[in-house]
Design goal:
Layout: H1 25-35, H2 46-53, E1 82-83, E2 96-97, H3 101-111, E3 117-118, E4 130-134, H4 155-160, H5 162-176, H6 178-182, E5 184-190, E6 201-207, E7 214-220, E8 226-227, E9 246-253, E10 274-275, E11 279-287
Parallel strand pairs: 1-3, 2-4
Antiparallel strand pairs: 5-6, 6-7, 7-11, 8-10, 9-11
Helix pairs in contact: 1-2, 3-5
Length: about 290
């Protein structure tokens, strides 16, 4: 349905774009289905993977869901989808009663590592909570500002918060690595229902068009350390990536946990990547020293 707005009404006579950017409600809904639960509870991340696959999918008539033809700026609708977890349009606020601050930060970390133009709703940089609403509701009570006379934080307190620091680190990394801004998306791992070793884990790759540079992002919604394995199967990177002589080096970890000591993995081998609890780890491909 979203993709229809990227095509003109006189298609196929004119295959140019109508709206060349749309809000990615699919990602929002599916990220909430996975992460917006009380305490340590999680939903399935598989729907989030499907919503990403839909970006390059096609309908029964063979027409791509989203118009791949570029707009006036040379970019197409797939490249310019606006990603969000919460917004003013009846979907504010992700963090309501029962949703932890850690879970909120994980959701925002996804925005900054998945494809699209990330839109962070105001207040999320301080884990602002809508205590008047609960899971299952989408009220307007989250449309609030920081007021000092109501006990709100100062700017200095906001900047020192865990949320602000994590978002700052991820934003800086996104600015540094073009793979995180414009790289291809390739899903790598979604937790398997038959094993509890990888519960809550979703992993994907962002890679340059030539496959020479790439990063692997591992998100763990569980409050326990996990790995990208169900005990038997492991991640294998796509064959069009340059993996020979390359390793995956962890360069950023969010959340309250830390990575265990483990050998730097060979990118060409089966990957059993650690995933600290309630956070995201970014691994960068680098030549083996």
């Amino acid at each position: 349905k979203l993709g229809q707005y990227t095509w003109r009404a006189d298609w196929p006579a004119d295959k140019g774009p109508a709206l060349d950017s749309v809000l990615d409600f699919n990602l929002c809904f599916n990220a909430r289905e996975w992460l917006r639960h009380p305490g340590a509870e999680t939903g399935p991340p598989a729907a989030l993977e499907k919503s990403m696959a839909a970006r390059t999918g096609s309908g029964e008539d063979g027409r791509p869901f989203y118009n791949p033809n570029p707009g006036a700026d040379g970019l197409n609708s797939r490249q310019k989808m606006v990603t969000f977890i919460e917004n003013h349009d009846g979907l504010n606020r992700f963090r309501v009663a029962g949703v932890t601050a850690e879970r909120n930060r994980l959701a925002q970390a996804l925005l900054l590592t998945l494809p699209g133009i990330p839109c962070l709703y105001y207040g999320t940089e301080f884990d602002l909570q809508d205590a008047k609403d609960g899971i299952g509701g989408d009220t307007e009570t989250g449309r609030m500002m920081f007021f000092r006379h109501q006990g709100g934080p100062t700017l200095g307190e906001v900047e020192k918060s865990d949320s602000f620091q994590e978002i700052s680190e991820l934003t800086a990394l996104r600015a540094k690595l073009p793979e995180l801004r414009t790289g291809r998306f390739m899903p790598l791992w979604v937790d398997s229902p038959g094993s509890d070793l990888d519960d809550g884990v979703f992993a994907f790759c962002r890679a340059s068009d030539d496959g020479k540079s790439y990063v692997v992002v591992v998100a763990n919604a569980s409050e326990k350390p996990r790995f990208t394995t169900d005990g038997s199967h492991e991640i294998h990177l796509p064959s069009d990536l340059a993996t020979a002589g390359m390793t995956l080096v962890p360069i950023l970890t969010t959340g309250g946990g830390s990575l265990p000591d483990f050998p730097v993995p060979d990118a060409a081998a089966g990957l059993r990547l650690p995933a600290p609890p309630a956070g995201v780890t970014v691994y960068q491909a680098r030549p083996r020293e």
